[in-house]
Structure formats: C-alpha cells, structure tokens
Amino acid sequence: MKLLSVIVILVNFISTSLSTNCNFPPDLWCSSKEIAELCKVTEQCAANSWNVKLDGPLVNFTLYYESLCPYCREFIVDQLFPAYQAVGEIMNLTIVPYGNAQETLHGSLWAYTCQHGPNECVGNLIDSCAIYYMNQSFYMPYIYCMEKATATIDPITAAKKCGPPNSAPVGGILECAKTVFGNRLEHEMAVKTDALQPQHQYVPWVTLNGVHTEKIQDEASNHLIKLICETYQGSKKPEACKTFEKPNTNRCHK
C-alpha cells in the first residue's frame, strides 16, 4: 500500500511543474507537510498518506544513542526512521544523542569523551544542534542521512552532504556545534541520559511511554512499527498498522 501511494504521488508530481526546492527522494515527500509543500505534493500526500484522525494519546518513544555506534546506526536506519515514516503520526518521538559519552566541566565549558572517539563527539554535537534548530520533519531525515553517511565518511563531511534545503543552513548547524551554545545543548542531552531510571547499560537504549524493559528493547530492535501500532490505544491507526491487526476470530458457538 505504501509503495502504491508513492507511485501515485510520483506520477502526479511528474505531471506537474517540478519544484527547484525539492531535493528530497520520493520516499520522503510525504514524511512532513513542510517537505510536501517544497515538493508541491501536498494534495497528493493528503489524499494518499495523511488520512488518520487520531482518537488516542500518542505513543511516547525515546531513543538514547551515540552518533558513531554501529548498532545505533543500524537501529536508526532499519527501525526508527522507517517507523517515523510509517507511523510517525501516532508517535511522540524524542531522540537524545549522547549515549555512553562522559563529560567534565572545565571552566564554563563541558569537555566530552566519547566511546568511538572525538569524531563521535562532533557527530553528537551536530545532531544536538540540528534537533534544536530544525523541525522534527527536517531533522529526522537529516539524522537518518547522517547515520548512513558516517558509516564511510566523517560527521562534518556527512553534515555538508545531508543538509536539507530551506531549513537551517548546514553552515549554521556546524557553527553551532563549535559554540558555547552547542556545548550546552549537548550537556542537556547528557543530563537527560544521566536521569534515566534505570540507568542505561548500553546503546541504543529505548523507552516506551517512559518505561524500559528488555522485552521492549528487543521488540523495538526487531519490529518497531509493530510495537508502536500495538501500543497505540486509538481505534484509527495508520495504514502500516493493518499488517499487525489480529484476525477476527469471534464466533457464536453451539
């Protein structure tokens, strides 16, 4: 169904004048209203993708991660971003880039030591600045792109490659990562991470509606869309949730 929607939207897009501001691949066109407007597919997305009227509280899902951890990368690329695209309208998603780092106060600045070296600290700072300056509809595709790219290139090069148009300039985000303000943004991520109860033992570390268990972690790591769909209490769910609906086995027995 999702593939069909993308095809329908793509056909309509090609039949209209192309927007010079649309530098996103087709599978991201309906990931937010802002991107849809840039790509001139708002009507098509509304007709084919944005058709859920919420009748239940959002599912709170938080990821604690570090930018160069290969398992965090795997989770973001294979589970989190696909879930954000498929069922993001029923999620209250928070991501916290700090992970297993450590911080020490030197004067008015925090010094960070990261598990995968100095480049990881740079990546964490870039992500923190992106989260602060961008709407989620822009920073989620941005961080997804960053995670894919940093498998082979450094975070600064990845930031320049992945920067989305018409939001916060990449240069501004990179500059933020070098400033006292960016330093304090990352400290806020450290505070959030250190406040976890129970304390995180590894990354990626997730909480569902404020709760962490090994069962939640395992389900999120393998079937996050399913987990979000089954946790959401509303009766009207995104199209992606229909795959996980339990079959109707009601019967009037003798």
TrEMBL record:
PANTHER family documented for this protein: GAMMA-INTERFERON INDUCIBLE LYSOSOMAL THIOL REDUCTASE GILT, GAMMA-INTERFERON-INDUCIBLE LYSOSOMAL THIOL REDUCTASE
GO cellular component: extracellular region
Compartments in which it is found: Secreted
Membership in a protein family: Belongs to the GILT family.
Protein name, per record: Saposin A-type domain-containing protein
Single GO term (MF): oxidoreductase activity, acting on a sulfur group of donors, disulfide as acceptor
Lineage summary: Eukaryota, Metazoa, Spiralia, Lophotrochozoa, Mollusca
Signal peptide from the UniProt entry: 1-19
Positions of the Saposin A-type domain: 15-55
UniProt-listed InterPro entries: Interferon-induced_GILT, SAP_A
Keywords (A to Z) from UniProt: Disulfide bond, Glycoprotein, Secreted, Signal
